[in-house]
Amino acid sequence: YNSDYIFLKPFGLHFFDYKNAEYYNTRRPYSRMKFSGSANQLEAFNAIITQNMTKEWNIGAELDFNGAKGAIKNQKTGTHQLRAFSTYYGSRYSFVGQYSVNRLFAQENGGVQDGTDLRMSGLLADMGNVNLPNAQSVTRFRQIYLRQEFNLMGRYKKPDSIKVEFWEFPLSLGHEFKAERAYRRFQETLEGIDASRKFYGKQGIDTLATLDTVLQSNISNSLFLKKNYSGLFKGGIVAGLGVETERHLTNRSMETNFNNS
């Protein structure tokens, strides 16, 4: 997954993002729901509902929840995602837009200290000592995206499909707006922990409580002129302006960086 935020790269495929979004064009309301779970908890739930308000205009919403307690201490993880989207496909004008909220939480145990307990317990939950019994991380990603195009030449045949890609005009003038905010926090406390047995302490890195936060944001606007050559390839010109900010906050210091492009 190609993300502009380094700490999102392992999780980006599971997040709602305009890069992996699906849009719909359906004459009747369309909904889908699926879930799976174990004996004592719901592990996955996904639902989508979408409907064309007019022949060209569609709206919809989707949510996706996933989670699991884990087999050993401090191994619970989960994701919560929600997006609202809308599309319009006319003969002279089109747009796609969506607002998405993504959250991932994970307890991070640093691995087991001794595999003996696990072998004896048969991987039963809450058994075995782990290196980080009081560590957890939270990752959040929010995004607003809008792309619109004006057809400058000729008409085109619309595809007849429930799930559609972004339709291409032969020659178009377009505008794209994107606002993103990415956040990650890692926290580890020392409550009830022997500092000499802490994971970082054994590695000679750190023996202190940790609270590290990274906050990145990006806002960009661009205009483009695009020519579509019968679906074989595209060519065009793009001009835009963007602002990026980055903040690092630890239990010792805070740093802020600004980048303009």
Characteristics of this structure?
261 residues; ten-stranded antiparallel β-sheet; two-stranded antiparallel ribbon; flat
Radius of gyration: 24 Å
Low-confidence stretches: 252-261
Strand order of the largest sheet: 2-3-4-5-6-7-9-10-11-12
Tell me the total number of β-strands: 12
Span between termini = 23 Å
Major sheet: 10 strands, antiparallel
Q: Treating each run of at least 4 consecutive H or I residues as one helix, how many helices?
A: 2
Described by the principal axes of the CA atoms, the overall outline is flat
Q: Which range does the strand content fall in?
A: over 45%
Overall residue-averaged pLDDT value: 77
The ordered string of helix (H) and strand (E) elements is: EEEEEEHEEEHEEE
**Helical/strand content category:** mainly beta
Assembly level: single chain
Summarize the amount of helix as a percent range: under 10%
Q: Could you outline the blueprint of secondary structure elements for this entry?
A:
Blueprint: E1 23-24, E2 30-37, E3 42-52, E4 57-68, E5 77-89, E6 93-107, H1 115-121, E7 135-151, E8 163-164, E9 171-188, H2 199-202, E10 210-229, E11 233-249, E12 254-260
Antiparallel strand pairs: 1-8, 2-3, 3-4, 4-5, 5-6, 6-7, 7-9, 9-10, 10-11, 11-12
